[in-house]
Design goal:
By secondary structure, the chain is an all-alpha fold. It contains nine helices and no strands.
């Protein structure tokens, strides 16, 4: 089902290679961190699904509000993600967890699970690079956001930070 979701997201983001490139990178980092942190296969599948659809709300937020601000994409993405995941055949409880993650992936307090933590870390790894942040800002993000050993190691190595 992850492969079906991947293809559905590419089709959904047709003509927007920037967003396709973004979710592909977040998915890759999330999967890598999840495996390194020992997630069980079912939890990893939920994480991978969330990583693929985490920004699904950007398109409707832009259409509705002319903005892709985090809270707008969280709110607008939940229904679109639910519909896509259900259509593909994900179990109801998995759909609800992924929808929750979509609706909170720009909310960095009260992170309530390894899947949520890893999704946030993977998104930061990609966003910090794509936004061209300087090392000081990236280091501050790593200190305040990153909790997994693998996520921290990736950030330190990728951005040449002090450990």
């Amino acid at each position: 089902m992850i492969d079906q979701l991947y293809d559905a997201m590419v089709a959904y983001e047709k003509d927007c290679p920037k967003r396709i490139q973004h979710f592909v990178k977040v998915h890759s980092f999330a999967r890598h961190i999840g495996l390194a942190e020992g997630m069980d296969p079912h939890a990893l599948m939920v994480l991978e699904a969330a990583a693929l659809v985490h920004d699904i709300g950007i398109r409707p937020a832009l259409q509705k509000y002319g903005s892709s601000a985090g809270p707008l994409q969280e709110r607008e993405g939940m229904g679109v993600a639910r519909e896509m995941l259900t259509r593909i055949g994900f179990a109801a409880e998995d759909v609800e967890r992924v929808v929750y993650l979509v609706g909170h992936h720009h909310t960095y307090h009260d992170i309530d699970g390894m899947d949520y933590q890893i999704l946030v870390e993977a998104d930061f790894l990609v966003n910090d690079y794509e936004h061209g942040l300087d090392k000081e800002h990236i280091a501050a993000n790593v200190r305040t956001i990153f909790k997994t050993a693998c996520g921290r190691k990736l950030a330190v190595t990728m951005f040449g930070l002090e450990d």
